[in-house]
User: Which sequence fits this backbone?
């Protein structure tokens, strides 16, 4: 098998904004990375009769943990699989792949199955008309509620923030009217981050997670479901707003990014935000804000 076909790819499924690909790695390529892994892991190994790090491969194989060699080999093979996926497929991958299956037999090619989250494909046609209708319905409801309150003797009700209600109507309408499927792996990642924050929060309060959940009247499964729903909706909104930003030709220039960074506070924060990755993050925040403002003014 030539080097060009050292990694053969097969698409197992392609649905729900996720593609599952199985890579078959040629035995020669596996052997190459196994040898490199053994040499690396045996570099500081002391074996009787050999200088440190100078034992031959056949001796190293007898002294090294086979699972450690396999894991190290896979770590070197994964990047080559990812490279081959990008080479063979025109995919809009938006996150890290998830390992779903792996077989590593002694005398055969290895197979690795990976799940890749993709940028969701969806339509946004007619969103402006739907938002305008939602805003009109909200305005009519607000006037009706105001009239009812005027006639009522109850003056204790807290007045509602019109802009906040309009934003809620905007987000609810986009979620209701625009259908898309978010990759489950991205949702899981968001849920896990929320669970970590929950744990940190309870630690700061000096209580256990169970005690905190009991105070909320919820079980661990219920809180996971809540986080799952919130993550799904938040990710959907992010994708929808990004698509609408493109539709509306929303742009963000370097001066806007710099101005926001300069308003962030101390010099250390400014220095951190001025790194390329952080500037891209700030750009995304500004772009999202400008998109929402444009929609609220329809």
Assistant:
């Amino acid at each position: 098998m030539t080097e060009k076909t050292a990694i053969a790819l097969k698409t197992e499924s392609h649905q729900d904004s996720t593609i599952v690909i199985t890579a078959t790695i040629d035995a020669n390529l596996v052997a190459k990375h196994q040898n490199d892994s053994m040499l690396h892991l045996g570099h500081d190994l002391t074996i009787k009769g050999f200088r440190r790090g100078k034992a031959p491969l056949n001796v190293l194989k007898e002294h090294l943990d086979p699972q450690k060699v396999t894991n190290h080999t896979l770590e070197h093979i994964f990047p080559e699989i990812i490279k081959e996926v990008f080479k063979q497929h025109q995919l809009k991958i938006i996150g890290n792949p998830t390992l779903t299956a792996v077989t590593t037999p002694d005398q055969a090619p290895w197979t690795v199955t990976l799940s890749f989250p993709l940028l969701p494909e969806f339509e946004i046609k007619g969103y402006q008309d739907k938002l305008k209708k939602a805003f009109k319905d909200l305005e009519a409801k607000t006037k009706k509620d105001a009239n009812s309150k005027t006639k009522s003797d109850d003056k204790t009700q807290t007045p509602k923030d019109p802009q906040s209600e309009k934003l809620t109507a905007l987000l609810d309408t986009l979620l209701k009217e625009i259908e898309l499927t978010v990759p489950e792996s991205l949702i899981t990642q968001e849920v896990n981050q929320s669970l970590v924050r929950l744990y940190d929060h309870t630690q700061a309060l000096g209580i256990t997670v169970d005690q905190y959940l009991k105070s909320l009247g919820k079980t661990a499964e219920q809180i996971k479901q809540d986080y799952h729903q919130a993550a799904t909706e938040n990710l959907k909104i992010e994708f929808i707003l990004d698509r609408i930003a493109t539709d509306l030709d929303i742009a963000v220039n370097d001066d806007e990014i710099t101005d926001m960074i300069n308003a962030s506070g101390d010099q250390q924060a400014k220095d951190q935000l001025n790194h390329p990755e952080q500037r891209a993050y700030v750009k995304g925040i500004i772009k999202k804000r400008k998109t929402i403002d444009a929609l609220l003014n329809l």
The beta strands are 7-15, 18-25, 98-103, 110-117. Residues 127-296 form a domain with the Trigger factor, domain 2 fold (CATH 1.10.3120.10). The chain has two domains: 3-117, 127-296. The longest strand covers residues 7-15.
